Automatic annotation (TrEMBL):
Belongs to the short-chain dehydrogenases/reductases (SDR) family. Residues 9-190 form the Ketoreductase domain. This is NAD(P)-dependent dehydrogenase (Short-subunit alcohol dehydrogenase family). It comes from Nocardia tenerifensis. Pfam families: adh_short_C2. Keywords: Oxidoreductase. InterPro entries: KR_dom, NAD(P)-bd_dom_sf, SDR_fam. SMART domains: PKS_KR. GO terms for molecular function: oxidoreductase activity. It comes from the Bacteria.
Amino acid sequence: MTDQNLTGRVALVTGASRGIGLATARHLAAAGARVVLTSRSQESAEAAAATIGDRARGFGAHATDEDQAQRCVDFTISTFGSLDILVNNAGTNPAFGRLIDQDHRRFTKTVEVNLWAPILWTALAARAWMSEHGGAVVNTASIGATVHEPGLGVYNASKAALIYTTEQLALELAPNIRVNAVAPGVIRTELARALWEQREPALAAATALARIGEPDDVAAAIAYLVSDAACWTTGTTLVIDGGQRLGTATGFGDTGRPVAGRPA
Ligand SMILES: NC(=O)c1ccc[n+]([C@@H]2O[C@H](COP(=O)([O-])OP(=O)(O)OC[C@H]3O[C@@H](n4cnc5c(N)ncnc54)[C@H](OP(=O)(O)O)[C@@H]3O)[C@@H](O)[C@H]2O)c1
């Protein structure tokens, strides 16, 4: 008997003050979990948690700050008694443009937040709770990891590496801890605003399911992956893109220029 009920589980969701992270925290809480939401700002984290209610707490922690991450993991366990679910969702993209036009600072920030932070938080959660008691981890990757498009080379490379890392962690942490990823298409959030705001009708028309994604679309998939319904699933990446990869809508970084294989 498999089950998506999370009653009694405790979850930690990074980057949860808005967007996919906040929607995920809401879905996990609705399924019965108690949830800690992080943001770089304590105020934003607490405000987001307050929208969920008693079963949620906010914690200000920069995803790449090891000391803050450790304190957040400790806070989660001391507040709610365990740490069964980790969603490494915080992500960034300061490095728009061609690879050869990037600088080391933007590259480093992208890779540290999108790739190193999931490794760091998974390690802390494993040591503090999951290795002994079991657990489920989901990393938020992107369909950008599987395509080539102008302007998003550093971001997409970091997400491709995150998919590899998901598989590696799944192997290293089995059988006690399952590690999976989601790869969203274009979702209506702040991070992706530049991708959808001016071109939503065209993007929707080129998407098999005829609309761009909403944070709840991704949250529902994450809630499935961390639940017992996915108890024999590890090291996999679930694409949540409404069929964007099937059509011509993969232009995350569409510059308006014609791209080979895609109509102008
Ligand atoms: N939207 C899309 O189309 C799309 C597609 C594929 C993948 N993704 C991935 O989905 C994830 C969530 O993005 P989103 O679209 O939901 O973006 P969003 O609405 O902008 O939310 C990003 C969240 O991450 C937090 N955050 C940013 N940098 C952080 C850091 N260094 N440490 C801790 N928290 C940080 C933000 O909180 P504060 O600003 O309050 O710190 C916010 O809560 C990211 O990993 C992104 O790469 C998004």
